[in-house]
Amino acid sequence: MTIEYNKDLTALTTFKVSAQAAIYAEYEDEKDLLKLSRTPEFINNEFLHIGSGSNLLFLSTFNGIVLHSRIKGIQKYVKDRENVFVIAGAGEKWTDLVDWCISHGIAGLENMAGIPGEVGASAVQNVGAYGAEAGDFIHSVVCFDTESRKTVTLKQADCRFGYRDSIFKNKAKGKLIVMQVSYRLRYDTRANNLEYAPLKKFAETLGRIPSTREVADEVIRLRDSKLPNPALIGSAGSFFKNPEVNKYFFEQEIKPRGIEMPEYPSDQEGKVKLSGGWLIDHAGLKGYKIGGAEVWPKQALVIANTGNATGEDVAQLADLIIKTVKIKYGIELRPEVNYIDSRIKVTVLGSGTSKGVPEIGCTCPTCMSEDPKDKRLRASILVETHGMKILIDASPDLRQQALRIGLSQIDTILLTHQHYDHVGGIDDVRPFCIENDLPIYTNPQTAKDLRRRLDYCFREHPYPGVPKLDLQEVGLHPFMIKGLKIEPIEVMHGSLPIYGYRIGDFAYITDIKTISDEEKEKLKNLEVLILSCLRVTHEHFAHLILPEALALIEELKPKRCYLTHACHNLGKHEEIASILPPGVEFAYDGEVITIN
User: Fold this and answer.
1) Mean of the pLDDT values across residues 385-412?
2) Bridge partners of residue 150, in order along the sequence
């Protein structure tokens, strides 16, 4: 086991853009990993596991610990005359495994020759090419559970393989570390997966069934003709997934536009698979450049580093591609690449209380104010970090808030509680459910209330077009969303227990009246706290007023604090901002807060 500090990772990623980690550690075997998991470096930091860095884009220094496996070894276990199990360490190169199988007369993986990366990534990413996916052959995966510090084995069904997806990229990310992968293959020197058009044509040209070696060589030739040479040009291979959209959406929203585009059957029921490369190409973006990043002229799914690209160049080009395709075709492309970005960007979507400001029919000075900062929609924020967009609360004003900032993607929703001013916009998340069910995390009481209130979303046979929601109940222990640690904080909204959330050095607490000493401990050492403050005077049974909010801020001592969930009685923004102590500000709708 080795541990390094302030590690330059540039050479360990295929993009070859600048990449750094605060801590870097390699381990040789399970005992090494167990020992590493007990170190302060591991316990006190977020961790990121990398293989060959082929699906990573670093946008900032990773402030946690980066792990890399050096678990090696390839062995076989013969079950019968037809089946053979090949077991490989997660640190083995994928290309070496494919070559090993072919040289030992074992067939199955040859269509995936030339894919960069390591064996562990084949299970995490469910890598695939030319009509084959690793998940189709994986029999089991041996993992290290970072919570129990024990070895666990997942069978193929447990891994929940999907298109470039698995449990290791979602619910198990940040929890399970892949150590070993077992593949169920067969003894054969002949290839039998020749349905993919270029390979079918190759076999027809030969006039016979090609050998596994011949298929592997042809696949590598095809890859080299389309993709940048990784030894010379940085890239991550395909940057985007081929989109799989809801069939109802495709029939009702895309086809009526009169656009002829190729469509393919999907393994998922009710879905249609589209060509991401076709969409980018026909949007006129082949060869388009931003800084040193370029849409590869021979394969539009690839973004290449032409020599001096920064992570921001790549991210800006990807964002342009996503927006252009969305405008032209109404389809949202999703990156296959994982963005590594510890920075947090918070957009205040709404800073008002349940009635908003101005209140209907009110003629007080605040409600009559012309200052845009005195226009307060119902409270909600958008958090952007680690390549994800997380909505905290879906207010009844969500549609207006989303249109105002041009929001076209939400990866998940965190709900603080069930009151209507915090959940009334959930029906408006329909555009974010086109590809997959939208995950929502909340406490059990709120989940129960939503199943009753939005029963039409949870029926066995829902009406086409309703929001497709994946409702997840969470307790007060930290949980992971694609490797990002989320820590719920329980506060009392009068007599109702509700949740706030901490993400890194940022926390969002709304509708609070009291908080226990135990929960206060979760709010220590914050860079930024957003805290509700209803009004200046006249104590409220369920909300903090200004003196109470300032007292709590003084106790918690965040470096910066922003007040939100304000009613018109708090007064005009300019007036309240002028009397707040240093480090405390009055949030306003549209404000963007960054935490580095």
Assistant:
1) 95
2) 145
For 485: left if phi > 0, alpha if psi spans -120 to 50, otherwise beta; the answer is beta
Query: Residue 205: phi, psi to the nearest 5?
Result: -65, -40
Q: Which of 46, 42, 56, 45 is nearest to 10 (CA)?
A: 56
**pTM for the whole structure:** 0.86
| Contact assessment for residue 486 and residue 500, using Cβ atoms and an 8 Å cutoff | no
* Each residue's pLDDT tens digit, 533-563: 999 999 999 999 999 999 999 999 999 999 9
Nearest CA-CA partner of 73 in 29, 124, 108, 12:
29
Catalytic residue among 92, 118, 336, 384: 336
Q: Which domains does the chain have, with CATH numbers?
A: 2-69 (3.30.43.10), 75-145+179-225 (3.30.465.10), 234-340 (3.90.78.10), 344-595 (3.60.15.10)
Pairing type for strands 388-392 and 380-385 reads: antiparallel
CA-CA-CA-CA dihedral for 444, 448, 450, 451, to nearest 10: 130
Count of all residues that appear for the chain in the document: 596
- The tokens for 505 are 């050095």
Beta strand pairing status for 106-107 and 176-187?
antiparallel
| pLDDT confidence of residue 125 | 93
Q: Single out the catalytic residue among 92, 164, 214, 294.
A: 164
Mean pLDDT of 178-199: 95
DSSP 250: I
54, 122, 238, 342: which is the annotated catalytic residue?
Answer: 238
Q: Which residues pair with 240 in a beta bridge?
A: 335
Residue 327: C-alpha distances to residues 46, 98, 280, 283, 309 (Å): 37, 41, 12, 10, 26
Q: How many Å apart are CA 469 and CA 461, to the nearest integer?
A: 13
Q: Are strands 289-290 and 293-295 parallel, antiparallel or unpaired?
A: antiparallel
Q: Give the residues across from 499 on adjacent strands.
A: 490
Q: Among this protein's residues, is 81 annotated catalytic?
A: no
Using CA atoms, how far apart are residues 571 and 546, in angstroms rounded to an integer? Answer: 11
Among 63, 56, 54, residue whose Cα is nearest residue 24: 63
- Residue 157: pLDDT band (50, 70, 90) is very high
Residue 248 binned pLDDT confidence (cut-offs 50, 70, 90): confident
**Amino acid letter, 163:** Y
Task: Report the pLDDT value the prediction gives residue 174, as an integer from 0 to 100.
Answer: 85
Which pLDDT does position 463 carry in this prediction? Answer: 87
Q: Which of 100, 121, 39, 586 lies closest to 337, judged by CA?
A: 121
The string of pLDDT tens digits covering residues 32-63 is: 999 999 999 998 888 999 998 888 999 989 98
User: Does 487 participate in catalysis according to the annotation?
Assistant: no
Tens digit of each residue's pLDDT (9 = 90 or more) over 472-515: 999 999 998 988 899 999 999 999 999 999 999 999 999 999 99
Q: Phi/psi at 20 (nearest 5 deg)?
A: -135, 155
CB atoms within 10 A of CB 287: 11
Residue that the structure tokens 């709900």 belong to? 415
Question: Is-catalytic flag, 336?
Answer: yes
